[in-house]
Amino acid sequence: MTGRAPHPFPFGPTVALELDGHYRKLQESERVARIRMPFGGDAWLVTGYEDTKFVLSDARFSRAATLTMDLPRQQPEIVRDPSMIMSMDPPRHSRLRLLAGPAFSVRSVDRLRPWIAEQVEGLLDTLAAEGPPADLMAGLALPLPVAVICEILGVPFADRDQFRVWSDIVMAVTAFPPEEVFAAFRSLTEYLHRLAELKRREPADDLFSTLVRATDAEGKLTEQELVTFGITLLVVGHETTVNELADMVFVLLRDGVYAELNRGAGPPLPRVLDELLRFIPLESPGGFARVATEDVEVGGVLIRRGEAVYTQLSAANRDPEVFPDGDALDLEIAREQHLTFGYGPHRCMGALLAKAELELAIAALLRRFPGLELAVAPEEVTWKVARLVRGPETLPVTW
Ligand code: HEM
Fold it and tell me: Which residues form the signal peptide (predicted)?
């Protein structure tokens, strides 16, 4: 214990893409701090870069242990699904990573790039035909990631529109009544069971066929783990990429970087995107908790067995000890060591894929819409609230 009173958490409502000033104060005076959670209990919050990496990679901090305790939590209900990859510890976790890993390798992502580029062109054709002005959220950021997930899973083309409707409802969180969200979730689950049957009858060169084989022939997965993995990809691969893409375009336009890139000034696009990934506080407010399975010291503070620890990746990405002047977007320095995709065994499986989507989408925008600008003042853009990640409701643009 630090002996100090716990800080009420979260520190305040999330405001656009601003990172709450409390994180910096804690980084200066209390890098491992006690926090009081809104739905019961106290936990630890780690805000420093090195401490965050330590918590995310040390095997004594468990995700699976969060399933069996009443976790000090941020939301009234928590998803407790032991068949979800993010709730697993090794060896179960490593087995699933090993099975699904090849679908997200450099080679697989390189093979997918032309297909992603084609999807982007199609979406931009529609945008060009219907605007200006246009909503870049609806026209580009929202449809792209789900299309890519369909392609990876091997969802037949005839089913993709329906798949997207269900996933939109499941992802929308507040826009639909809970019964409708629940019904869409059930439809999606049933669909993935049917998809497994299809891949049994007609195996193809896609991730779901590989996982079905691992389930049936090799007994490495349960049917439940298989279906949950399909849903997990949607939950973690869709919402994050949609919002990251919209946030990036917003920052590029707001800060005049878009025009700079169009003049051929500035570093190569992948590097710009890495700095944007570091700078944009996508996560709001804390990520997934870990529980200490034995007493562990973090940054000079003793965390007792059974206590929960939260990290804040966006705060770690601006830790002054690692990123001097980290509150500023600086395209001149390569700062790709950011933690936006996490760290350690649970580090994002789709990081390369997400980067490919972001790069191809933004490169095509720059090429096809050199005069792109926000259609409203930056302060007038409205932001979604009470979500796991931050993003605009709509992104009105013109050209
Ligand atoms: C900009 C977009 C993305 C961001 C910022 C992001 C971020 C993250 C983070 C921070 C984690 C680790 C969570 C933790 O340790 O508690 C994670 C895990 C994961 N991500 Fe992503 N992600 C993105 C896109 C994607 C995409 C496109 C996919 C796949 C389609 C994907 C699949 C996964 C999976 C399967 C995990 C779980 C890994 C595990 O538990 O071992 N992500 N992501």
Answer: none
- Ligand 1 atom nearest residue 347's Cα: 12
Closest C-alpha residue for ligand 1 atom 1: 241
| Domain range 7-398, CATH architecture | Orthogonal Bundle (1.10)
What is the distance between the alpha carbons of residues 300 and 46, in angstroms, rounded to a whole number? 12
Average pLDDT over residues 216-224: 86
β-strand partners of 302: 297
CA 233 to centroid of ligand 1, rounded, Å: 8
| 347-359 average pLDDT score | 97
Please give the number of the atom of ligand 1 that sits closest to the Cα of 287. 16
Give the other-Cβ count within 10 Å of 299's Cβ.
16
- Angle, alpha carbons 234-240-246 (nearest 5°): 125
- Per-residue pLDDT at 174: 63
